[in-house]
Specification:
It is a single chain. This protein is mostly helical. A 3-stranded mixed beta sheet has the order 1-2-3. The chain is elongated, with a radius of gyration of 20 Å.
Length: 190
């Protein structure tokens, strides 16, 4: 399987070259590209609303314990005790925030700085990323929750996360028992 970041880079390069040939000064073309961008975001919203409905339909109350990696500047891991339902709702909320952040940045770039070519790229990459998301794979595509889809999901740290010390989420029994004995959190999140 090809790394999603590599395919995103390829898509971005392709659409940036394509956007050089698109006449954005033509209002019909510009409105068409805007319409595709809005449609892409509406499809993503529809996907996330469907995933939300599936999460609430299942309401999986299975307990989930894991250790969050320490925050930047701290060395203390936090023990989290939650349910699969609450964890999925938290992850979906993060997806909504990320999508809204992307829309806000694109709106500023397009409306304030008059950049139109990123509209084409941002019509494709977020939609592709939505289908590559763990919650969508589980609740929409029906993939089993094993391996990379086992909760808690592996953090997608990337280069910035590695530089800032973003660690791995620990879910092994030994680490959890050690944290419980030392009193590092354990408050139930719902």
């Amino acid at each position: 399987m090809v790394n999603p970041q590599v395919t995103n880079l390829g898509i971005m390069l392709f659409f940036m070259q394509l956007s050089k040939k698109v006449p954005f000064d033509n209002p019909v073309v510009l409105n068409g590209v805007r319409a595709v961008y809005v449609l892409s975001n509406l499809i993503i919203l529809g996907i996330y609303l469907y995933v939300r409905a599936k999460i609430h339909e299942k309401k999986d109350r299975t307990n989930l314990k894991y250790l969050e990696p320490p925050q930047p500047g701290s060395s203390e891991e936090k023990l989290v005790t939650t349910t699969v339902f609450a964890y999925d709702c938290q992850q979906l909320k993060a997806l909504y925030k990320a999508q809204l952040m992307g829309i806000g940045m694109m709106a500023a770039m397009h409306l304030y700085f008059n950049f139109s070519s990123p509209l084409m790229v941002q019509s494709v990459i977020p939609l592709k990323s939505a289908f590559e998301g763990n919650l969508v794979k589980i609740h929409l595509l029906g993939e089993p929750t094993t391996g990379d889809l086992e909760r808690p999901f592996k953090a997608n740290t990337g280069l910035l996360g590695m530089l800032m010390g973003g660690g791995e989420i620990k879910k092994d029994k030994k680490s959890i028992e050690t944290a419980e004995k030392s009193g590092k959190g354990g408050a139930k999140e719902e």
